[in-house]
Amino acid sequence: MINEEGWRLLESRTLFQNSHLEVHQEKVTIGGTTTVRDWTVVRRKKAVVICPITEQGRFVLIHQARIPVQKWLWEFPAGQVDDSMDPDLEVLTATALRELTEESGYELTDAGELINLGHYYASPGFTDERQHLFLARPVKANGSGARIDASETIVEAREFTLEQLRSMIAGNIIQDANTLALFARLIARGLIG
Question: Is this structure's pTM higher than 0.85?
Answer without folding.
Answer: yes
